[in-house]
Every structure is written in structure tokens, then in C-alpha cells.
Design goal:
With about 220 residues, this protein is mainly alpha-helical. It has helices at about 5-10, 15-30, 40-80, 85-115, 120-135, 135-155, 160-175, 180-210. The chain has 8 helices and no strands.
Amino acid sequence: MRRWNDWDRAAPLTGVAFTVLVAAGAVLAGSTPADNASGQAVVAFYVKNSGRERAAVVFLAFAFIALVCFASALRVYFRRRASHDGLTLTALAGAVLLAAGQTITSGLVWTLAARPGQLAPATAQALNVAQNDLVITSAAGWFIFSVITGIAILQSKALPGWLGWASIVIGIVAVTPAEFAAFLAFAVWTVIVGLLTWRRSTAIGTAEEQLSDPVLAR
């Protein structure tokens, strides 16, 4: 069994980074036009808020990069403590799918904010509807990641069982009209799991170093 390296120990903190970055992106983005907004209203909004919306997209893009890294860190964590390779690989694939869906919709916002004054109202309206309603890819990825991770937690007992049940519930609620509540719970869940796995990974790494050191092992 290989020893923990510095990345293995620190990687779970990407769960905390995800929550911080996604919160910053959401605050910057503010309330964008609803999917029933007119083309003229969409253009006017992005002309006024172009810089802020592009900054929000950057934060959100890095947030979902951090989420993929977090899912990868969880895979490493579970593999060190139990053999659930199929589940953890599926959960990682779900995180990648979620990140893909979110960055696609963020890309539409970037398109709207890049040169809003040059967009025809009909084009702006179509892009706005797409970025509001293009949610199936994200929802599928979120469901896979949360539910499968929850099952892995319950089967491996590598984390407290309540975190597994919470993850499953979050994944189910994510594909309902209450998805915003699920996202708030998911943000808190990633912080708790990130900090807990970081602490345990650090403890395991320190113990392995002591065992491998002939002086400390005496």
C-alpha cells in the first residue's frame, strides 16, 4: 500500500474550495433575467452587468473544477479504507457530468455578457432561455454523484452513516423543483465531508510516516 502524499492529504479541502467559490459566483451573478424575459430586457441587463457576470462565470467554472477534484479525492479516500471501486468510479463520473452541465450553462452566460450590445434581442432571449433551462445534464450528474457517494459511505462505513443518507436525499431532491434547497444542503455537505476526510487523511498519513521511520517506529 502506497503512502499518503501531500496531495492526498490536502485534496479533500477542494470540497471547501468548491463551496467558497460557488458562493462567490452566486453572489456576483445576482438575479439574472428569468426565462420569460424579453430579448430587450436581457440585452439591457447584460449591457449593465457585463463585467460582474463574466467574473461570476470565472468563479463558478473554478468551483466545478474544484468539485471534480473533490470527487477524485473521495475516490482515493474510499479506496484506502475499503474496496468500492465501481461505486467510487461511478460517483466520479457523476461529478464530471455535473461539472460539464454547469460549465455549459455558464458558457452561455459568458456569451451573453461578452458583447451584449451586438446581440439581436431574439438571439439574447434564446441564449437566456437556454442558460436558465438547460439543466438535464447537470441534474443527472448531480443525482449520480450524490446518490452513489451516499451508497459508498453506507457500505464502506468510511464516514458517518448520516452523511451517506444526507447525500442520497440531496441527490433525490436535486431532480425535483426543490433543487435550490438541495444545492444549499450540498454546499454544507461538501464542507463537512471535505474537512472530515482531510482530518482523517492527515492522521493516516502521519501514522504511516511514523511506522515507516525506523526511529519513530521503535
